[in-house]
Amino acid sequence: MTLEQQLKQATVAIFKEQFGADITPDTVTINITKKEHEGDYTIVVFPLIKFSKQGPEQTAEALGNALKEKTGFIGSYNVIKGFLNLSLTDGYWLNRLQDISDNAQFGQLPLQTEKVVLEYCGPNTNKPLHIGHVRNMLLGFSMSEILKAAGYPVTKVNIYNDRGIAICQSMVAYRHFANGATPQSSGIKGDHFVGDWYVKFNQVAKEQMAELQNAPEDKDEAKKLTPIFKEAQETLLKWEAGDAETIALWEQMNAWVYEGFQQTFDMIGVDFQKDYYESQTYKMGKEIVDEGLQKGVFYQRKDGAIAVDLTADGLDEKVLLRPDGTSIYITQDLATAELRHEEFNMDKMIYVVANEQDYHFKVLKLALQKLGKEWAKGIYHLSYGLVESPTGRFKSREGKTADADDLIAEVLRIAEERTKELGKIEGFTEAQAQELYKTIGMGALKYLILRVNPYKKMIFNPEESIDFQGQTGPFIQYTHARIRAIMRKVGENTALTIPTGINLVDVERELLKQINEFENVVRSSAANYDPSEVANYVYTLAKTYNKFYHDVSVLNAENVKEKELRVALSNQTGLTIKKAMKLLGMDVPERM
RNA sequence: GGCCCGGUAGCUCAGCUGGAUAGAGCAAUAGCCUUCUAAGCUAUGGGUCAGGGGUUCGAAUCCCUUCCGGGUCACCA
């Protein structure tokens, strides 16, 4: 039972005994005491005075006194207006440190039975990854780590949008202009290579648009009249007909893309247990739509299209299948969801997809529920905001500023530059130095993105170089390296003992309180699908440690017991930072 | 236009299931390395929590409304 629960239950009992009032635990609000007041936890008594039938101060006084008697771990309390501030005994806190230190699994919550499938990334195969994918991947990976820490078995899956008109456009441009070039022969990473042909296609289409006679005003309409666009459409038809030559080129180009993507995945440190391909699922879905038709939850329109009426749910009527029986986006997603349920029998399915698709996922979930799929209630759309530049949305035409690989290269370059400036790599081999740049650079990038609440859009300015000071990944990593330096001096194999019967100074107690919150944070960020809670927590923990580090000496503590305590606190802080950073997909260095 | 989401310090963000005097970082200014790593610590300045109304003992937080920004309303994905 958590401390909070203990305090709530004790308060409930006290209200019964002293005031004869039946209150429920959730009428008791408990906060962490604000810094400017003395105490560890605060009970807000205003909501309780109608049960005690006394003023706020008398109620708080009576409750404080009774809690102190009853629990045995409250050392003192004070009352300010309607706030009862409780200070726990040092003995209580030392016991907590002992318990946490004894538990190598601290931060790992009890196993849950609900199985989770988590889809993230979802790239198109006609162009390289950009900053939006980076946010997606960081959120997806981090969320999977957090859910695992919260006890859920998680299966990570990816979906590749590997077919359609876009990839055909790359293929057409390649066929015309590449002269058989390959990523190898041109020295260009595979996904960029294919993306370059996509760009080429659009250039040519634009030129051809200029030559059109009586071109329509609408640019999209005009584009469709260009010879090269028509060729792309023919290519798509050939692909759908299974034309061998077309399929071969398509496979070749996608293979290049996957090779390129894999390098980026490795660099970022994300992985998937299973890959899905739109080319394999796009024809599925007719069955599931028929099922809905038979059950009478979907209906056939006069033109033959099958649709679902969601007006009762505040949405619209939505087409699910074309009149010719071919799938559209939603059809595939219905089928893929069903397929995943058959494969994994999951209780929850999380989709990490940008908030542009909020409406789509509402429809998807409702349609599946109308089909009577019980498991569909476990669908959760982890909707995240777009990454924008200070002037607005990143457009692919705005150059390469939003390209994932460029972004990574840039942050690694800064990491190297900063590290060398600070002279931090004495005694490092070249390989160790490179590893450090990667750890720090990726730490900076990942933290920058993950510290923002997912559902909010975030502003990223490519003109300003990424920070390495203040609330950043490197700050937290640095704190870890400082702790590790102390632990090396203590000696790696030295058994740590946690003293009893000593008084804690404020920084020590504050640090311990922070460490003690870790599991609450894991629980909360999992429940809210929000890695930024972990990101903000670990920053606060590191900040608190740096104050501790500055204010007191660990190795030259006043006496043996103090030293034991501070070593144990340092060690546990280091472990907790490492665990929290792992939940965010970040490494933490031994030195920096 | 209908629906959805956002608006907190110059900038980037916390805080939002109502609780004390709204917090961090960056940027600015001023200090701290004969002592465990200064990617650190400390201090100062900086706010009409978009505007207005309401509910409440108490509102950045909940409700209504106006303004501003974004998304979506495809037989695209």
Describe this structure in words.
- With 592 residues, this protein is an alpha/beta fold.
- It is built from 22 helices and 15 strands.
- Among the domains are: 3-88, Gyrase A, domain 2, CATH 3.30.1360; 164-280, no CATH class; 394-459, no CATH class; 473-583, Isoleucyl-tRNA Synthetase, Domain 1, CATH 1.10.730.10.
- 54% of the residues lie in helices and 11% in strands.
- The strands form 4 sheets. The protein has a 5-stranded parallel sheet, sandwiched between helices.
- Strand 1 (29-32) and strand 2 form a beta hairpin.
- Helix 1 (3-19) crosses helix 3 (56-71) and helix 19 (506-516) runs antiparallel to helix 21.
- It starts with a helix and ends in a 9-residue tail after the last helix.
- The protein binds one RNA strand of 77 nucleotides through strand 10, helix 15, strand 14, strand 15 and helix 18.
**Mean pLDDT over all positions:** 93
Count helical runs: 22
Residue share in helices? 40-55%
Percentage of residues in strands: 5-15%
Global shape: globular
* Rg measurement, Å: 29 Å
Backbone structural class: alpha/beta
Distance between the termini: 39 Å
Unreliable residue runs: none
Spatial strand order of the main sheet: 7-6-5-11-12
Give the strand tally.
Answer: 15
The biggest sheet amounts to: 5 strands, parallel
